[in-house]
Design goal:
Blueprint lengths: L1 H35 L25 H12 L8 E5 L6 H14 L3 E6 L13 H12 L3 H11 L9 H14 L9 E6 L7 H11 L11 E7 L3 H8 L4 E5 L5 H15 L9 H10 L4 H12 L7 H10 L8 H13 L4 H16 L6 H8 L12 H4 L21 H7 L2 H4 L10 H15 L20 H8 L2 H13 L7 H11 L3 H11 L6 H14 L3 H23 L3 H6 L8 H6 L8 E4 L8 E6 L5 E6 L5 E6 L3 E6 L5 E7 L5 E6 L5 E6 L4 E5 L4 E6 L6 E6 L6 E5 L3 E5 L5 E6 L6 E6 L5 E6 L3 E6 L10 E2 L5 E6 L5 E6 L3 E6 L4 E7 L5 E6 L5 E6 L4 E5 L17 E6 L5 E6 L3 E6 L19 E3 L5 E8 L2 E8 L10 E2 L5 E6 L5 E6 L3 E6 L5 E7 L5 E6 L5 E6 L3 E6 L10 E2 L5 E6 L5 E6 L3 E6 L10 E2 L5 E6 L5 E6 L4 E5 L17 E6 ...
Parallel strand pairs: 1-4, 1-5, 2-3, 3-4
Antiparallel strand pairs: 6-66, 7-33, 8-9, 9-10, 10-11, 12-13, 13-14, 14-15, 16-17, 17-18, 18-19, 20-21, 21-22, 22-23, 24-25, 25-26, 26-27, 28-29, 29-30, 31-32, 32-33, 34-35, 35-36, 36-37, 38-39, 39-40, 40-41, 42-43, 43-44, 44-45, 46-47, 47-48, 48-49, 50-51, 51-52, 53-54, 54-55, 55-56, 57-58, 58-59, ...
Length: 1330
């Protein structure tokens, strides 16, 4: 085509100059780009690209090809970006698509060619469309590679997101727009057979993108060619899009179609010995009725070898054949071919149907060898024959016949339609309903014979799967297609099978054998664990329905195992055995049954789980407080809104984030909700707006403004047609999701509307407000229905309707929940048990249970009929629980917390046991005894607030608890002479205790009217200073217990912390006005203006031992140092913490400053340079609320929201750096002496064997223990990011640390003395035990 060549020459000339301009820069970057930017992390649809064998025969389809080329090369900027070529099956659309793709590939201008295929729908190619296009375009223009790498580095979830809108925006549109100059020439993207993507749902969002205004954002030289049948959804979407050019294959004239098909037939039959007159070829072309697929099949029929019949005779038979009245022309051709190649005998036809059923019913196409491997394990021996008996003559209809490496699949989708329609195929009809049993049995039997331990020969347990070079190649080499298929799909075939005792026996054999672990291993390698819990649940239902109760129990146990450990197994497969097995509950069937086969794994020496924990999954990703959570209606996904201003969607089974983070709000997201169909998300924010998002695309579709204060609650109506919002501005507003305001009303005194909810029928709206009242409103008229429900003594923070709409439940800051009869507006229940405000409440769909989340860090469930607790409180969060929600089936609960995490809880597991030491509440304050031999802390144990004392060396409890306070103990101090203990409480009192006897001294010190935050002894011990939520600071005589003088008060300023100077002349207080106030001890007056500099509340203050400096810690994440004499800030703020700095304290000699933070770390600072000393102290998984030095300065004591206390040895962290760094080189013997005693136990003999291996090649600059960290995600990580072990969230807080003593001592301890790890990990399995 001369026209096509002219376009090509023009583009070459126009592109040369740009290429020269970039050549030097690209050449200089090429090596770095190729070495560093590996885009394998972006999902890619293998096998979906250009197939040159499908191109048009030269000289055919000239007119339509010219039309497409003219469109591609059109210079007009307003030209349509999309060209839709459509027509019925068999007219040659794909051949045209591949021809265009090939030609533009040869010119270097093909952006991508992406082909859908009906038989490849199980691969979910539609989820990888734009990620594949992005990678293809990056291969075409290497300038895109660093841009794609940047996108992935910014948001790692983009690589495997199922959100095609995100794929398009972040991986195609944005990288292309960031190129310094345009791509050379017009860039062509081909999408072939869009109609074969699957159901309408698979392409709904793809069509949305192709028809959206986003197409106009593409550079003007981009062209997208789409081919498909004109299915209703595709036609409706593309037909009306202004930027889509339509071209029907029916527009080609009959003469042109017959000419092209005649050329095609002539070419296909040219090598036959027989000759065919031109008139006959024309007649055959006319008979095709414009269907290239019919012509292809006719040629294959004519050329097929069959004894006693010549090709000319077959040609003549075809010409003389009269089509049957019913069916299409293609159907008739299929009948002709099948009758010719399949014997008429009953056996042959039965075999044909059986083989085709296997091919059509497998969820993924398999090559011949795998089809045979499956078939020889079918239920009936009569089915155990070579599929080639049937397939060998079917090369004209199926791929993979002449090339055994290619999966067998219909060459054209019309053959599938033909075989599965009884009216069309008749004697060749394939009934797919009979295929599940055979495929189930075959899959389980393949697994029984093929599963192996460490099947892919993974070399080291230190690596994550993504770090293993060539892992994909290993999987393809060691895991056959039929084994891969069996592992991933047997759970889909079993539930659809009728009960069969043989099938039940196979399932039982799998789950009662160690091979069940090997099956999980392969799923982890194949990234197939996400869908497994749901699939196993369906298998379990199939078993229990058929009274297979024993196997049912094992399957449920495996389901829980995968839910708890699926994430870690997918991250590093060896840790299925090294981490998941050791931390499985002792009552679990899996570890107890197979533990003897794994003698060389870690052992939980003490404190391990006995039963499956209620926490199934923990999700981490938000960078601040999680304020709101909700399940999607299908129960497979979870929605969350956070103080970090973002909204995220999570996989409810694996805890992995799905799609991109939804960003748009300018302030914290306080509330989120999902419409009943799951297609829309509503969010309310402190930025005073309600926003509506399209779930699949993650796009904001509406922003509703009108509120004048932060929005605290949003909810969808059941029909999804309305959204209600409640705000701090005192108004309730009802919105059309994509329209605008419908209703707005408020109360006369405009109390803050903290919570809103629609009734199940959508007729009513309930609101909870700061005036402690619940009200019900008519959703259409906004008039109040019934009386105001009153009874709470604090603001209502959350409301929920019962499923029948007759009752409501409210949660309040008064620590209670209350149930209301809405017909009478009367209270019918009071639920008490939480010890702090109840922030959230939800009602189960069956109406039987209520769940609540509280600032006491717990989640509780209640019987909705009796109001009694269903189980013990669910503990595990290390921050306030801000939001809770039931799953649609009521079997799970999701909670969102101020600890930045979401937890998913199993409601069907009984909460067995409490904290081993009886802890049920937070530890707000700890201290050493004056001689450092004891640790004291205020705790709540078994419902009582007490002071408990432990031995600082052993962690064992020493003596009886000190009892007296009625509520939580907030502060505790020992007198300088060590004879007395002072404690303060929420009960507004200070109590003194004899340190030797533990007996109370005198009466409680009373005077404060609210919570006491902090207390401090004067340096001589004669006075006690305290500060309180009543905005006062008071001084007490420690001997008499009497208040000395009037309180120190500074208006409405709220003091959080106090400190006294070493000479007892000054008192420093840190306050909610972001400042430090200095007071004269004697005169009770402020001595100077407030010390200002912090940008948030000041949470802690401390004087240096010489009295020259004050250190302050703040909610602004910084530490500041102040000169006492000048009251000026000394130097710059100390940065390092990433969350609130709760406590700062100087060492007794003044050389160090310690700080404790909500980022779970403790840091040390050199007071000479004010630089950090060593690495942060890591070990607490929760916020560190308190820290103090021992009197000799050699130890630190800390407490955390994880309900543990830790004693740290300071010296390793402050030891001077060695002059020479040591690089470790280790022996590779099995039990080499340990240079590095990595020990998570009180027994030294439990230390990690061969620990030198863990440090092999590492450079040790300081204390080696600094290189071994328990990260927040649960991994114990060593040098170079090596993975040693993964610890479940339920064991992290109590795990004994390398560098600290954990109190209580009954925590988790590990025996690693015989653990195989690193390149020896495979020895953990003892083969002879099988």
């Amino acid at each position: 085509m001369q026209q096509f060549r002219d376009y090509a020459i023009r583009d070459i000339h126009t592109g040369i100059q740009q290429m020269l301009e970039h050549s030097n820069r690209v050449h200089g970057q090429l090596t770095r780009v190729e070495d560093v930017l590996h885009l394998e992390g972006i999902a890619y649809a293998a096998g979906a690209g250009l197939n040159t064998t499908k191109k048009c025969l030269n000289g055919t389809r000239v007119e339509v090809l010219a039309e497409i080329v003219d469109w591609i090369e059109a210079p007009e900027p307003g030209i349509s970006r999309v060209f839709w070529l459509f027509g019925q099956a068999g007219v040659g659309k794909s051949a045209i698509a591949h021809t265009i793709a090939l030609r533009y590939k040869e010119l270097g201008r093909l952006g991508s060619c992406f082909c859908f295929a009906r038989d490849r729908q199980a691969e979910r190619r539609h989820d990888k469309l734009f990620t594949t296009i992005a990678r293809d375009m990056a291969d075409r223009d290497i300038r895109l590679k660093p841009l794609l790498a940047d996108a992935i580095a910014t948001d790692n979830s983009l690589g495997n997101t199922l959100d095609v809108t995100q794929q398009w925006q972040k991986l195609v549109l944005e990288p292309v727009s960031r190129l310094p100059s345009a791509l050379v020439g017009n860039v062509v993207i081909v999408i072939d057979a869009l109609d074969e993507s699957g159901s309408e749902a698979t392409r709904e969002h793809i069509l949305g993108i192709l028809t959206s205004t986003q197409m106009a954002e593409l550079p003007s030289n981009f062209r997208i060619l789409i081919t498909s049948r004109p299915l209703p959804d595709i036609h409706n979407a593309l037909h009306h899009a202004k930027h889509v050019k339509l071209w029907s294959m029916d527009t080609a004239s009959t003469t042109v179609a017959e000419r092209d098909i005649c050329l095609f037939i002539t070419d296909k039959l040219r090598n036959l010995n027989d000759t065919f007159p031109d008139n006959d070829l024309t007649l055959l072309a006319k008979k095709s009725d414009g269907l290239f697929e019919w012509a292809r099949l006719a040629c294959e029929f004519i050329k097929s070898h069959k004894g006693g019949v010549t090709a000319k005779e077959r040609f003549d038979d075809l010409l003389s054949h009269t089509p049957e009245e019913s069916g299409t022309l293609l159907d008739d051709m299929y009948n002709v071919i099948l009758r010719d190649i399949i014997d008429k005998s009953t056996k042959a036809r039965q075999r044909f149907r059986s083989v085709m059923r296997q091919i059509l019913w497998t969820l993924e196409s398999l090559p011949v060898a795998s089809l045979n491997a499956m078939r020889c394990r079918f239920a009936q021996v009569t089915d155990h024959y070579d599929v080639q008996i049937i397939l060998r003559p079917m090369a004209s209809l199926l791929s993979g016949i002449t090339d055994s490496s290619i999966p067998v699949r219909p060459l054209h989708s019309s053959f599938y339609d033909y075989l599965t329609d009884l009216d069309r195929s008749q004697d060749f009809f394939v009934d797919l309903s009979q295929g599940h049993l055979d495929l189930s049995l075959a899959s389980l039997r393949v697994m029984r014979e093929s599963l192996r331990f460490n099947i892919c020969q993974l070399d080291s347990s230190y690596l994550r799967n993504i770090e293993i070079s060539g892992l994909d190649q290993r999987i393809r080499y060691y895991v056959s297609p039929h084994l891969s298929y069996s592992c991933r799909h047997w759970t889909s075939h079993v539930p659809a099978s009728a009960f069969d005792s043989r099938l039940a026996a196979e399932i039982g054999e799998l789950f009662n054998d160690v091979r069940v672990l090997f099956w999980i291993e392969i799923l982890g390698l194949l990234n197939g664990l996400s869908a497994t819990p749901g699939a196993l649940l369906r298998v379990a239902k199939w078993l229990v329905t058929n009274e297979e109760c024993h196997t049912f129990a094992v399957v449920i146990d495996a389901l829980k195992f995968i839910r708890m450990f699926g994430g870690v197994i997918s991250e590093s497969t060896p840790h299925l055995y090294l981490s998941a097995l050791p931390f499985s509950p002792t009552s679990s069937l899996l570890p107890t049954r197979f533990s003897s086969m794994f003698p060389r794994i870690a052992r939980v020496a003490s404190g391990g789980p006995v039963h499956w924990p209620k926490v199934q999954v923990s999700m981490r990703g938000h960078t601040s407080l999680v304020l709101s959570v909700a399940f999607f209606p299908d129960g497979t996904r979870i929605l969350s809104g956070s103080y970090d201003k973002t909204i995220r969607i999570w996989d409810a089974e694996t805890g992995l984030q799905l799609g991109r983070t939804l960003e748009g709000h300018r302030s914290p997201v306080s509330s989120v909700a999902v419409s009943l169909d799951g297609k829309r998300i509503a969010s309310g924010s402190y930025d005073n707006t309600v926003r509506v998002w399209e779930t699949q695309k993650g796009l904001e579709v509406a922003e509703h403004c009108g509120h004048t204060g932060p929005i605290l609650s949003v909810a969808f109506s059941p029909d999804g047609g309305r959204i209600v919002s409640g705000s701090e501005d005192g108004t309730i507003r009802v919105w059309d999701p994509e329209g605008g305001l419908q209703l707005c009303w408020s109360l006369w005194d405009r109390p803050s509307i903290n919570a809103v909810a629609f009734s199940p029928d959508g007729e009513l709206i309930a609101s909870g407000s700061s005036d402690a009242a619940l009200r019900v409103w008519d959703a259409k008229t906004s008039s109040q229905v019934g009386k105001t429900c009153q009874g709470h003594i604090g603001p209502i923070l959350s409301v929920a309707f019962s499923p029948d709409g007759r009752q409501a439940v409210s949660a309040s800051s008064d620590c209670t929940l209350r149930m209301w009869n809405l017909e009478t507006s009367s209270q019918v229940g009071r639920l008490s048990g939480h010890s702090n405000q109840v922030s959230s409440v939800s009602w189960s769909s069956d109406g039987r249970r209520i769940v609540s989340g509280s600032s006491d860090y717990t989640v509780r469930t209640w019987d909705a009929e009796t109001g009694k607790p269903v189980d013990r409180p669910m503990t595990g969060h290390t921050g306030l629980v801000n939001s809770v929600a039931f799953s649609p089936d009521g079997k799970r609960i999701v909670s969102g917390s101020s600890d930045h995490t979401l937890h998913v809880w199993d409601t069907e597991i009984s909460h067995v046991g409490d904290h081993p030491d009886g802890f049920t509440e937070l530890i707000y304050s700890v201290c050493f005894s004056s001689d450092g031999s004891r640790v004291l802390a205020g705790i709540q144990a078994h419902g009582k607030d007490v002071i408990r004392i432990w031995d600082a060396g052993t962690g064992l409890q020493a003596g009886d608890d000190l009892r007296g306070h009625r509520f939580r103990i907030t502060a505790i101090k020992c007198s300088p002479d060590g004879t007395r203990i002072a404690s303060a409480s929420i009960d507004c009192t200070i109590r003194l205790w004899d340190a030797k006897t533990g007996l109370p001294i005198g009466r409680p010190l009373r005077g404060h009217k609210n919570v006491i935050y902090s207390i401090q002894f004067s340096s001589d011990g004669q006075q006690i200073v305290s500060c309180s939520d009543d905005s006062t600071i008071r001084i007490w005589d420690s001997a008499t217990g009497l208040q000395i003088g009037d309180p120190l008060a500074s208006g409405s300023v709220l003091p959080f912390a106090i400190a006294t100077s070493p000479n007892d002349k000054l008192i420093a207080s840190g306050s909610d006005d972001y400042a430090i106030h200095l007071w004269d001890f004697e005169t009770r007056s402020e001595v100077c203006k407030p010390l200002e500099g912090h940008t948030h509340w000041v949470s802690s203050v401390a004087f240096s031992p010489d009295g020259k400096y004050i250190a302050s810690g703040s909610y602004d994440h910084t530490i500041r140092i102040w000169d006492v004499d000048t009251t000026a800030q000394h130097g710059d703020p100390l940065y390092g913490h990433s969350n609130t700095v709760y406590i700062v304290v100087f060492s007794p000699d003044g050389t160090l400053l310690a700080s404790a933070s909500g980022d779970t770390t403790i840091r040390l600072w050199d007071t000479t340079t004010w630089l950090p000393v060593g690495f942060p102290f890591k070990g607490h998984p929760g916020r560190v609320m308190s820290v103090t030095f021992s009197n000799d300065g050699r130890r630190l004591l800390s407490s955390s929201t994880d309900n543990t206390i830790r004693v740290w040895d300071v010296e390793p962290f402050t030891a001077s750096q060695s002059a020479d760094c040591a690089t470790v080189q280790t022996s590779h013997s099995f039990h080499a002496p340990a240079t590095y005693p990595i020990c998570f136990s009180s027994l030294p003999e439990h230390a990690l064997c061969n620990s030198d291996r863990f440090f092999d090649g590492a450079t040790i600059e300081r204390d080696w223990r600094e290189l071994v960290q328990l990260e927040r995600d649960g991994w114990i990580v060593g040098p170079k990011g090596r993975l040693l072990l993964w610890v479940p969230v339920t064991c992290r807080a109590s795990l004994r640390s390398l560098r600290s003593l954990v109190i209580p001592r009954s925590g988790t301890e590990l025996d690693l003395s015989d653990m195989a790890h690193g390149d020896m990990w495979r020895h953990c399995f003892q083969h002879s035990s099988r």
